[in-house]
Write a structure and sequence with these properties.
Strand content: 15-25%
Distance between the termini: 38 Å
Largest sheet: 7 strands, parallel
Bound molecules: nicotinamide-adenine-dinucleotide
Strand order of the largest sheet: 3-2-1-4-5-6-11
Structural class: alpha/beta
Number of strands: 13
CATH superfamily of one domain: NAD(P)-binding Rossmann-like Domain
Helix content: 40-55%
CATH architecture of one domain: 3-Layer(aba) Sandwich
Shape: globular
Radius of gyration: 19 Å
């Protein structure tokens, strides 16, 4: 297939592009590079031997997306572009609603005009909100605890309505749990700008000396060691999930929307991740327990049964491999893509 990947220069997008290229698909990346580096395309070429073309375009610009689809006809799109920082979304809600929703309106409108109606969308476990206890399965009602989460709930609804209005659409809503890890080559990985919001990128920066110590937000949750439990999934497994979803949509007898959790199905605590990362880095990493962070829930993990059954996909890599691969990437790229090499 020829596949348009929005946000393809980003963390999850770059690993997904590698997987698509390795499976023989032809990829066109659209990314405005607002949270990524053009060097990613060089690294993808190093890994795959294929130069993937990049259009530096804001996906909210429907005219520009229409022009790209006219110039490079595709069979399907994977839509990862968007803003994703929870805290920033609380401070700048209008920017988050406008960017994330407009990106989806623009892409779906341009795709419909071009007659392309197969779409894989990056959703998130954040749509399970705070009301349920894990494991989370796809038919639970959706809600959110912050504007970023609401943009995912709303984009899912928009896509369900689009498919209801025109049954030719084939749409996958992929609800990612907590993506971590990096390509085993160490050549691509997560490169957060500014203060990392997530545990593993933060730990990676502690390990490389960019941060003093890990702050553990609360050790008085109702969990075995008192710290929060999350379903960490290796980004390589996530990339494989995109490929499986795309190929399943393309082979389906009929259109419609399908929702799949992409997670391992088990929770790992903050202290267990700290121990795993310390093993990977070969030394004890410093940490300090502080108060709970507003909006955090005690535990979240997926029920991945539907993805096993319908996609023939399951996550294979464990927390030690996730930390070892993250560490390889961080150690050899201590300041990310644009900094000097180690
Ligand atoms: N990383 C996570 O923990 C996580 C979890 C669940 C869902 N997601 C979703 O997965 C997707 C990818 O996340 P990621 O972690 O790879 O983030 P990322 O920031 O690394 O990737 C997003 C990419 O989109 C680009 N982009 C942003 N706005 C754009 C616009 N208007 N036009 C064109 N390009 C634009 C950025 O430059 C970046 O390259 C996002 O939609 C995110 O909400 C991420």
């Amino acid at each position: 297939m020829r596949v348009l990947v929005t946000g393809g220069a980003g963390y999850i997008g770059s690993h997904t592009v590698v997987r698509l290229v390795e499976a023989g698909h032809e990829v066109q990346v659209v990314d405005d590079l607002s949270n990524s580096s053009p060097i990613v395309l060089d690294r993808i070429e190093e890994i795959t031997g294929v130069r993937v073309p990049l259009d530096v375009v804001d996906v909210t610009d429907r005219g520009a997306v229409t022009a790209i689809l006219a110039q490079h006809p595709v069979d399907a799109a994977i839509h990862l572009a968007g803003l994703k920082a929870v805290g920033e979304s609380v401070e700048q809600p209008l920017r988050y609603y406008r960017t994330n929703l407009d990106a989806t309106f623009s892409l779906v409108g341009a795709m419909a005009d071009a007659g392309v109606r197969t779409l894989v969308f990056s959703s998130s476990a954040t749509v399970y909100g705070a009301q349920a206890s894990p494991p989370f399965e796809e038919d639970l009602p959706t809600s959110a605890t912050n504007p970023y989460g609401w943009t995912k709930v709303m984009q899912e609804q928009v896509l369900r309505d689009v498919a209801a209005g025109d049954p030719r659409w084939r749409i996958a809503l992929l609800r990612y749990f907590n993506p971590v890890g990096a390509h085993p080559s160490g050549r691509i990985g997560e490169d957060p700008q500014g203060h990392p919001n997530n545990l593993v990128p933060y730990l990676a920066q502690v390990a490389v000396g960019r941060r003093e110590k890990l702050l553990v937000f609360g050790d008085d949750y109702d969990t075995p060691d008192g710290t929060g439990l999350r379903d960490y999934i290796h980004v390589e497994d996530l990339a494989a999930g995109h490929l499986a979803a795309l190929e399943t949509l393309a082979a389906a007898d009929a259109g419609g929307v399908r929702t799949w959790n992409l997670g391992t199905g088990s929770g790992t605590s903050v202290l267990e991740v700290l121990a795993a990362f310390s093993r990977a880095a070969g030394r004890e990493l410093p940490h300090e327990v502080v108060g709970r962070r507003a909006g955090d829930i005690a535990a979240s993990w997926a029920d991945p049964t539907r993805a096993h059954r319908e996609l023939g996909w399951r996550a294979e890599k464990g927390i030690d491999e996730m930390c070892a691969d993250t560490w390889r990437w961080q150690e050899t790229n201590p300041a990310g893509y644009d900094g000097p090499p180690a």
